[in-house]
Amino acid sequence: MPPFTRPATALLSAALLTGALVGCGSSGVAVPGTETLDAADRQACTDLLESLGTELGTLSARAEPDLEAGTAVFGDPSSLNQEDDVTVVCGAVAPDGLEATSACDAVQGVGWYTPTEQLDDPGGGAVSTTVEFSPRVSVVFPATERGDAGFSVLTALAAPVKEHLERVTTCK
Known about the structure:
Blueprint: H1 10-18, H2 39-51, E1 55-56, E2 59-61, E3 71-75, E4 86-90, E5 105-107, E6 110-113, H3 116-119, E7 126-130, E8 133-134, E9 137-141, H4 148-164, E10 166-167
Antiparallel strand pairs: 1-2, 2-3, 3-4, 4-9, 5-6, 6-7, 7-9, 8-10
Helix pairs in contact: 2-4
């Protein structure tokens, strides 16, 4: 099997649409740390986070992006529960288990790696991380934002990721 591949987007799409992609807050999945970035990568992350605006998929920004931390937080505008928020991390460290032969799923031309054990746990949390771009972007999903909402987030991130970050490999 070529590096970072999985049959089309079938597994990730199915996981998102059936509610298997989940992640942060009370879900038990931690927001990933960030790498030390050089000036160009730091600027790329700033540009990416600032380009996200006030909406990401079906979610609304909770505040301005934290450019120092490399994060932006989005949530359901009808919910005050911050444990239900989705966190986008630019400059994320490589997740445990990500290897050159790890499978990935492409959503709108951006390959995402989500650990299989997280995809298989419908009640737990999940972190999806870009595998094709540098610096890496991770998205932490709470259980409440699985299904269509989670898929809409990855879909909405595709254009800004492709516009602001450097493609370093491909997800087939």
